[in-house]
Amino acid sequence: MLKRVISMLNFRRDKTFPFAYSSLKLLITGPASHYIYQPVVPTTVPYYIAKRLLLDRLIFAPAFLLLFFFCYEHPGGNWADFQSKVNSSYWPALKMNWKVWTPFQFININYVAVEFRVLFANMVALFWYAYLASVRK
């Protein structure tokens, strides 16, 4: 099973991808996932559950997906190739993101303890990134 997931990921043999991807996760996605919901939409706000979910699905998801495409398509590569790939794959990937991640993020934001949210999201993300890699082909 693990070998199949790894083969589906089809990581580049390029040495810059692991750095770009880990930088994205370490500096942007991880801290935002862990710390942003409480200050932006505190629990005292009416309908905070729905507002947090909408914030995640309509603001964070499109932005993080675009950053993922940027890192995965090799930042030092041809800009026209990157733009072409985004034009052909971004919208289908975003729609699938909304379909797949919305129920998981609802559970994550509302029922998972804060200290376990990143872990929960990373477990789901393993399969999500396998899907993204297959879309990339």
Helix-strand layout with pairing:
Blueprint: H1 2-9, H2 16-35, H3 37-40, H4 48-72, H5 79-111, H6 117-136
Helix pairs in contact: 1-6, 2-4, 4-5, 5-6
Keywords summarizing the entry:
137 residues; mainly alpha; globular
Total number of helices: 6
Output the helix-strand order. HHHHHH
Number of strands: 0
Principal-axes geometry comes out as globular
Spatial extent as radius of gyration: 16 Å
Euclidean distance between termini CA atoms: 20 Å
Pick out the low-confidence regions.
1-13
Approximate helicity band: over 70%
Which whole number gives the mean pLDDT?
Answer: 76
- Supply the helix-strand structural class: mainly alpha
Strand content: under 5%
Subcellular location: Membrane
Membrane topology: Multi-pass membrane protein
Keywords: Membrane, Transmembrane, Transmembrane helix
InterPro entries: Mpv17_PMP22 (IPR007248)
